Amino acid sequence: MPLLENCLSTPSDTATINITPITTTSFDTWLMGLPTREKTWIQSTGFTGKGNTSAIIANVEGAISHVYVGCGTEMPVSNSIWWLAAIVDQLPEGQYVLPADIDQNIQQAAALGWCMAHYVFDRYKSADSAPKVRTLIMTDQGSVDNALRTANAMALVRDLVNTPAEDMGPSELQEAAEMLAEANGGTISTIVGDDLLDENFPAIHAVGRAAAEGREPRLIDLSWGNENAPRLTIVGKGVCFDTGGLDIKPGAGMRLMKKDMGGAAHALGLAQLIIENDLDVNLRVLIPAVENAIAGDAYRPSDIIMTRKGLSVEIGNTDAEGRVVLCDALALACEENPSLIIDFATLTGAARVALGADLPATYTNNDDVWNCLDTESKTTADPLWRMPLWAPYDESLDSRVADICNISNSPLGGSITAALYLQRFIEKDTPWVHFDVFAWSDRKRAGRPVGGDAQGVRATYAAIKRYLDI
User: Fold this and answer.
1) What is the pLDDT of residues 176-196, one digit of tens each?
2) Which residues contact 58 (CB under 8 A, 6 or more apart)?
């Protein structure tokens, strides 16, 4: 688990090591101004200012005196998150400081990347040695706290997604939500098992009813904040493992299905960021938590199930279960007429085919919401990409025997039709945004190891403040 609190600190009497960014365009001029000894060493290392590289200078006693970081052709800008993270693994333990004349926004962004470069998921590793921690010195405690709040929210998402289903079933997801509520004065209630039928959540129950004892389906309902503030509801898909149900996935398709609760992880990470920054909202978090298992009472292709909204759903494929559990939660969310509904879900492979691993497919019924998301996505360097709620495709969800089918009758546009399915359960005048996220980093990069990843959380947090004018 990460030790992020040790990564940042305010100035102290301990000696610090300077870190200076260098570009390829300024490299020759900079090199000529160095003392001969340092110039000779830099030339021997092959350092040229190329991005993701560094040159470490030692003094005559052998102690590190300076670190130069390659930034490519341009100096870091105010939303550059990962330029400093790229060299953290190359550094020994110690206290480091950026030049005082670097813009505070650049330092804040760099500090976040510095923290995330220390993230490691080691819950199941033998404790051979303590992780190496380097500390970045920032000018004031407020800057440290701001960076740590964001880093810890991102780490929460990663930890939840990285934990295998054996230890992250519906009940453990409930415990994670309870810990967040209890630590911050929130309240939480949970409807479990057959009680879902009594409380009119039949779709959640249908998907999760085949799970083993102790892993029963449930609806997790967390509340926090100012009752008189704008009502914000966040919904997260909590499919803690997805076999595909009776439409069983092949082995390769099941390999990463521990991350199918990535939407719930994002919902909790965003909620933690909102709560720890004391945002003036009336927050509600809804997580339908299930395991899509295979047993004698598993729901079947061609079954027709009812939903909280009263719409009947024909099950065309049991592997399209995420939208089925979400529709009950979204219907509940709309009953309170919130100012904004946000849902996160690892919903479709089609979104990944269209946009790859890094770009969350983003759907919204409100242009003002998108304008805020688009602006803050660029400001925070947290990428999002708007996809169309293309109305002509809606008819592909028609069913001969029910109000709607849970899959399209076309193999094309799968992420769009999944979003259109969810839109059927959103009240027309309720602002809503849906994120179809991957929740996973599929290759190792600076500050982003292979594994669970928080996508769009920072941009969404900033957009909430902008949209709700907080």
Assistant:
1) 999 999 999 999 999 999 999
2) 64, 65
